[in-house]
# Entry
Amino acid sequence: MMGYGKRLGFATKAKQHFFKSLDLQECIKPAEKRDGLFTGTKLVCSLGPSSHTVEVLEAMLRAGMVAVRVDLTWGGLDFHRATLAALNQAMVNCKKLCAVILDTLGREIMVRRPCEFGPDSWPAHPNPIDVAAGQTITLTTAPDFEATADVWPVTYPHLHNMVEEGDTVYIGRYLGTGSDSASLYLRVTRIEGADIICEACNGAVMDGLMT
# Structure
């Protein structure tokens, strides 16, 4: 392969790099444990209700956690402040540093439902919505509508202009897998103004933050 030197009056050739005896199995063998070395595997953990106490965070730090993700999409600011304070104390106790990644609200379209805040300031929906296959569910972009069992207001005001009859709309619990019991697939049957009338393609129990 000719290189930059050709313009200077001489030819250059790219050097080939290869391993004469490469054993790919060596790449997946665990290394010998030696004290004083950095953690080989870096753990980045999302913090929530089950991982916000000093004791739990200390155990996570000792297990190799090097960074935490604080999801500002869900949970009150008081909860996140308390979690970060607990993390700070856990770092002092363990004498280990930990990076903090703040995940801010993105472009998720959410179903607006009232929620209750527990003693730890973590929000919860006390009444799950049980949806049966074939049931009619209406998504509405009306700004002042309150959610009911079969009419769900959404946060994006132009959604009714984006979908068409026959489209499939997925609604699930925030950060769900798409295959769990809180995942719902809707088929759009018609659009009436700000209302998107849909038919449920499967049964689901809708709980938590719905996006």
